[in-house]
Amino acid sequence: MTDLTRPLTAMGAGHRLVAGGKGASLGELCRAELPVPPGFVVTVQAFERAMLTIDPSGEFVREVSRLPAGDVGTIERVTAALRARITAAPLSRDLANAITAGYRALAAPDEPGGAPVAVRSSATTEDITDASFAGLQDTYLWVRGTASVLRHVRRCWASLYNTEAVSYRLRRQVPEEHAAMAVVVQRMVDPRSAGVMFTCSPTTGDRSVVAIEGSWGLGSVLVSGEVTPDSFVVSKVTGEIVRRNVAAKLRLHQLDPAGSGTCAGDVPAELREQPCLTDPEIRALARLAAQVERHYGTAQDIEWALTPDGGVHLLQSRAETVWAARTARPLAVPKASPMQHVFEQLSRPALVDHPAERATES
Amino acid sequence: MGDDGFNFPLPSQIEDVPGAEGWRSMYQYFTRFQPEDDNRFWFHNAMHFPEPIPAFDTVTSEVPYTAIGANTARVFVFPTTLGIEHRIVNGRVYITAIPVTDPAEIERRLAIFTERAGYYYENWDALYDGWKTRMAALIDQIEAVKVPELPEFDSVEVVTGSQGVAQNHYVRENFHKCLDLYSKMWHHHTEFLMLGYGAYVVFFEFCKKAFPEIPDQMVARMVAGIDVIMYRPDDELRQLARLAVECGIDDEFIENRPPAEVLAALGERGEAGQRWLAAFEKARIPWFHVSTGDGFYHHHRSWNDDLTVPFAALPRYVRMVRDGEQLSRPTEQLKQERERIVAEYRALLVSDSERAAFDQMLGLSRVVFPYVEDHKFYCEHWFTTQFFAKIREFGVLLARAGVLAEAEDIFHLHHTEIDQALTDVMLAWAAGSEPLGARHFGPIIAERKRMLEVLKGWSPPPAVGPVPEALNDPAVRMLWGVTAETLATWAAAADSDGHEIRGYAASPGVVEGVARVLHSVNEIGQVRDGEILVCAVTAPSWAPVFGKIKAAVSDIGGTMSHAAIVAREYGMPAVVGTGHATKKIKTGQTIRVDGDRGIVRILG
């Protein structure tokens, strides 16, 4: 491969400026020998070279930097034009060749038309520990065929100028010069169930547990908020499932019957109230989550998918930002004598929260 | 307060059970709900009193509550809580702990508590050793109490020793001695208990704050001892099973064979039989002094009183030995696992300073825990079964004198009434006349027996009165498991679809199976292999039954309740503290026990 495309396995956490946040993180997971669907990255350098042709004078940066952060209408008007220019521009021959070669390599012998892939944006500004850029740029699932892959790479590039992404950068004062886009092309996983997991409790910050949320079909159904997912809390210490809440999951996202792209559908009635994961699967996911966390040394927010054969795939891992930002205050400090803890605690009334009072507070 | 949150009925709204309107005649005036009691929160102590209590058995609330409150409020002077008050309604005991809420008062009490509790915490092990000595002496004394036989002529020693006191005097003195020893036993029981719960509750609540998702039982596992005395009776049985196989006399242990028959048969098996019988006799003292209940009812007999329970477990253990199954508890492994759990949670704490505090709290909890885990064997089991046996002997005396139709009837009289009956007998023996008690007590006892039967059908609400402002008493939180969450669970039970029962997730796992609802410990023999035990509360001596069942559900109990501990030990799901399970579930129904979430579902 050229510097225009790089295999995921060659990437790592230090490659954000080559592979974008997502590409770097997936590469890092590959290095840790965690299960990641095979794929390659259309590098930031490929994007930058293309932009030299589309925008030789650097007007994109100037125009976007000038936009008023709060004026969504203006942002949308200006960025729509920029996006159109990116998607309309043809790819250079050497880049098209590199992507085509990378894509063909993903196909199995019985896939002459090419493998189904996910084409995923991977901005250099995304997934920075202190700023969760998740979901601001586009991802395309079930893309098939060389022409379609090439088209979706350009759409991913264009999504760097999505209204939400630009608004976010302006609001967070991320310098526009730093914004660039790599694209990850990965073999599509056809999941039976998918979801997210956190290596600490998202509701309490408890670091002794892994919290898993999942639903039937593609994980995008969780992001879109169309279902209440099943949720499971697993103790990292013992592997026990300490809490479970199986929800009625009415909708799912899946491969469009036309053969490419995705569509929404109804979950078959008999599956709706069934847990989307078996207990061994839940425990396997939790073990994997703990492994990822150990690898990074910080709490992680992980996307996972499970194929019908029970295979687990990690689609993304980024540093958990909510609880990491809070500095944990120690709950207790040692005392001159252990029994002083008792004296202190037993002189404090154990108040009962009255639901009525709690209701008025919230 | 609680207007649109939860509401419990008021004590005054509880109606007499039809057909048992006369229940008050069984109980003392100071146990009745008063009008002003409507202003306080009370909960049904179903852990200790799941069944309607016979008149004599009120001694097991009267005496413990005189002792527990004395130690909490007057001796150690806990800062935020006084003692426990109790009331009886429709044969059930409701209790409440009286909180101290005035900050100045808490401050004043704290100064005293610090000094007194501090003395015990600092010298815990030495004081606990002294406690064991005192308890052993009390057990010796209760076993030594003589119940006079009142023969036609008194013993000649009264004359030759110029004793000057005839036997009928000792009728009352020795009856009182039983009560006095029982009272002392309870004072000693609660001498350490509240301090034990006090230390544990601190560690428990720290863990809950540091790890909000930590299951209650995980905290318990970090503290729990490995060689716990309450496992000992069951361990002895397992060893006897092993010995039976070793001696080649295991063919005598057949399901449902009466113990007496087994023992007789073993007597015929020569040296091997004798060897087993000798080991059996050795194990009986003291380990078979374990109660089949937990010592709060006269019918909670010990294994020694009734060998049916241990002999029901032996055939299964024998089978396991033959099949080469691991019978002994893997103590080393359990210990390593406990330390691993501690190390992992400890590593997750935010700083070395917090870890040092954690070590202190865990350390103190482990100091006090052997008492928390082991005292019951000495108190509720060994002492109490011997106490009831003595009272039963007084019953025999009263029956022989014609006051009672049968010895067991003594338990339908309050101890003050027994005083009267004994006086009657003492007088009649002295006068050479007939006691008059039969005419007086006969109809009373008959009516009480009838009422108790009627009262069994009553479903007591788990709680009455307004939701309390605070639950300060450590025992209420850790022993009875009554916390803010429990209150919400009890209240929610009233408006669920009736098929779901919520409680504490006490031991993880999910299973489905056929329910066996036990209303009394005496029904323990009905449990079949693979059933799910549903009961008000279990006692440690039920351990053998846990080998048969695949899950346990109880009405009351926190994560330190026996059902919870034993279920974890056996690795089966358990949901405890449901408040209602024995009322809602019927024997034979299929239920799903979700020990991860604390939910029991009736499937049909």
Defining traits:
heterodimer; A: 362 residues; alpha+beta; Dna Ligase, domain 1; D-amino Acid Aminotransferase, Chain A, domain 1; 2 domains; six-stranded antiparallel beta sheet; 12 helices; 36% helix; B: 604 residues; Glucose Oxidase, domain 1; eight-stranded mixed beta sheet; globular; disordered N terminus
Task: Please describe what this structure looks like.
The complex is a heterodimer of chains A (362) and B (604). Chain A has helices spanning 16-31, 44-54, 59-66, 72-88, 93-106, 146-158, 163-172, 220-223, 269-272, 279-296, 339-346, 355-361; strands spanning 5-7, 39-42, 117-123, 139-143, 181-187, 193-198, 209-216, 230-235, 241-245, 251-255, 262-266, 300-306, 312-319. Chain A has 362 residues and is α+β, with helices and mostly antiparallel strands. Chain A has two domains: 5-187, ATP-grasp fold, A domain (Dna Ligase, domain 1, 2-Layer Sandwich); 193-319, D-amino Acid Aminotransferase, Chain A, domain 1, CATH 3.30.470. In chain A, a hairpin with a 6-residue loop joins β10 (251-255) and β11 (262-266). The longest helix of chain A is centred in the last third of the chain and has 18 residues, at 279-296. Chain A is globular, with a radius of gyration of 23 Å. In chain A, 45% of the residues are buried. The model of chain A is unreliable at 129-134 and 354-362 (pLDDT under 50). Chain B has 19 helices and twelve strands. Among the domains of chain B are: 229-331, no CATH class; 498-602, Glucose Oxidase, domain 1 (3-Layer(bba) Sandwich), CATH 3.50.30. The radius of gyration of chain B is 25 Å and the shape is globular. In chain B, the strands form two sheets. Chain B has an eight-stranded mixed beta sheet with strand order 5-12-11-7-8-9-10-6. In chain B, strands 2-3-1-4 form a four-stranded antiparallel beta sheet. Helix content of chain B is 51%, strand content 10%. Chain B has helices spanning 59-75, 103-122, 124-144, 157-160, 167-210, 216-223, 232-247, 259-267, 270-287, 308-322, 331-348, 352-400, 415-431, 437-455, 474-478, 484-493, 543-546, 562-570, 581-584, and strands at residues 42-44, 81-89, 92-99, 463-464, 500-502, 504-507, 510-518, 532-535, 551-554, 574-576, 590-594, 599-602. Chains A and B meet through β9, α11 and α12 of A and α2, α5, α11, α12 and α16 of B.
